[in-house]
Amino acid sequence: MRLSRNAKAVLFDLDGTLLDSSQAIMDAVEHVLTSRGLHCDRPMVAEMIGMPLENIFAVLAPNLSTEEVWNLVLEYRKYYMIHHLERTSIHPSTRLLLQKLKEKGLKLGIITGKYREPTINALDYFGISGFFDTVVTGYEVENHKPAPDIVLEAAKRLGISPEECVVVGDSPIDVEAGKRAGSRTIALITDAHSRALLKKANPTIIIENLAALEDVHF
Mean pLDDT over all residues of the chain? Predict the structure, then answer.
């Protein structure tokens, strides 16, 4: 598989792409909601992973005020930070893939919708933080994905143009953010996002698994 022009950097989504944190996220959302006597629809949460937390809680608890929603977000963050590594795993191909991309001379970045503390915590825990030249989280930019802000900020920090970046993610919002920034995009098929769903987002390339990135000519 070949991209249309040479890339200088690969920007990765985190949850669902490099790490499987879906159970940790669903557990934390469920804990917060049930502690308030509210129902948690886990399949619905799974479909919304990647969205801002405040948006997820607004959907799951539509009768709450904005202030009450943000209280849920704060409770989620406390619980998640304590428990998330218990239910998070690294995809088997991740470390070797990152090493090979670095050997090709590519800069690497993380562009994740979650906040910074658990992001850095997870990267350190799984021993992959040293591979990344920049980490940008959704709460460090004005607008969350699918807005292009996080891609534009990562490119800026790396000192390159967005057109020289390739965005890799597992959801349509990752693809949309990359496209709106002018980057090429690679969509990863997962249980949460099928080929048919990702194809509608019109990424540059669709891959079946993370290891397939080794066959992409950047």
Answer: 94
pLDDT in tens, 175-199: 999 999 999 999 999 988 889 999 9
User: What superfamily would CATH give domain 9-20+89-215?
Assistant: HAD superfamily/HAD-like (3.40.50.1000)
Integer Cα distance of 76 and 27 in angstroms? 10
Which is the catalytic residue, given 13, 15, 27, 170? 13
Under 8 Å between Cβ of 134 and 109: yes
CA distance 72 to 35: 10
As its CATH architecture, domain 22-87 has Orthogonal Bundle (1.10)
Active site residue 13: yes
The β-bridge relationship of strands 9-12 and 134-137 is unpaired
Residue with tokens 């000192």: 159
Let me know if the fold of 9-20+89-215 is the same as that of 22-87.
Answer: no
Distance separating alpha carbons of residues 34 and 30, to the nearest angstrom: 6
Q: Which residues, 6 or more positions from 1, have their beta carbon under 8 angstroms from its beta carbon?
A: 205, 207, 212, 215, 216, 217
